[in-house]
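EI: anyone free to look at a 298-residue chain?
SC: sure, send it
EI:
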Amino acid sequence: MAKRQFSIFNFFNYIFLTLFGLSMIYPFIYILVYSLNDGKDSMMGALYFFPRKFTFENYVEVFENARIWQAYKITLLRTLIGTLAHVLLCTLMAYALSKKSLPGRTFFTYYIFLPTIFSAGFIPYFITLQKLHLINTFWVYVIPMLFSFMHIVILRTFLQGIPEELEESARIDGYGDLQIFIKIILPLSGPVLATISLFIGVSHWNDWFTGTYYVSDKDMIPVQTLLQELLSEAEALSSSMQRAAEQGGQTVNMNMAGATPESLRMALLVITVFPILCIYPFLQRYFVKGVMIGSVKG
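SC: here you go
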């Protein structure tokens, strides 16, 4: 076996990649440190890698807020239901479009492709949701995200790579289209389905826009929209404190035991990101394989 030579390029390449990796990880460390530090103490700054005054008070304040639990429930439900429905419908459509014998196959492909390029804009979209009675309902999170042309293309390309002999042998055994899809196609599509699930699941989990503009009921907003509201409140409070300090030399009294809007925001950020960080390592092994198989036909 030939010895692997270590060059100057490799040396600097490893250093660069290490620094780049640390630059990606440090923001999470920064947020975690501030979430575990006393809020009033955090206002002095100079926190880098370890809490200066360790406390769980920020998380206690967050979990005692009933709005957090309700928002978290909405986010979990929309992510689970939306991901399952999206993957199922996109896979069914991709399976149909992967068949060259499908009548109007080219027409249907262009029919679902054109809306991806042309968008009517925010107001027509809002009116459409209003006419469909989706405004201020849970289904405004799910139904508009059931379709993705990119995901259909990835799935279709993958399914076209499955040997037709498998389906022919199944038909000889008496299987219908639905049985073939459930018992043969789905089990063989594990990597690409995991990839699509990760894509759409993260999109559902991180979406704050829908809850901000299409939902007015405070009990129906997801956790990301609630986080965005807390960000706005924290910025407004910070501005008012700064103005008060400039005008009268006094600061606003905060009636919280060691917690501030900024520290609560950090704790909520950790709670929001944590589930994705837990799920991602389990899907990582499917991620690259699924994208490559679904994007390149060899």
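EI: Residues 242 and 248 are 10 Å apart (CA to CA).
SC: 👍
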